[in-house]
User: What shape does this take?
Amino acid sequence: AAQTGELPWIVWFVFVINALWTIAYDTQYAMVDRDDDLKIGIKSTAILFGRHDKLVIGVLQLITLAMLVLLGQHYELGQSYYWTILAAASLFVYQQHLIRHRERDLCFRAFLNNNYVGMVIAVGLFIAFW
Assistant: This one.
């Protein structure tokens, strides 16, 4: 960026992946505080998405995974990378299971579970670029 004065498109691609995933897990966290946010007038994504919150989270998770696959194809990452993406997908399925009834404690557990998603993806990238 310092030499060309601009960022390559792949940087923006990774930024979008991060943004979509962040909206998904932040909405899980917002589902924990939905009742309190309604009382005090905070406009969280859980309130914005309303009864479609679980669907929107799932769609964002699917898009995130698809974009991670495209990233792997762009950099010709090996099979180990794709196994970690499959592991991340499994964690997303588990999160969907946790939030299915919108129970506060389980939504918070789903939010915290994203630490493992990040770890799995980081391990996949580390192995692929090693």
Q: What stands out?
A: The CA atoms of residues 24 and 57 lie 5 Å apart. Residues 104-129 form the longest helix (26 residues). The chain is about 80% helix and 0% strand. Helices lie at 9-32, 34-40, 45-49, 53-74, 79-99, 104-129.
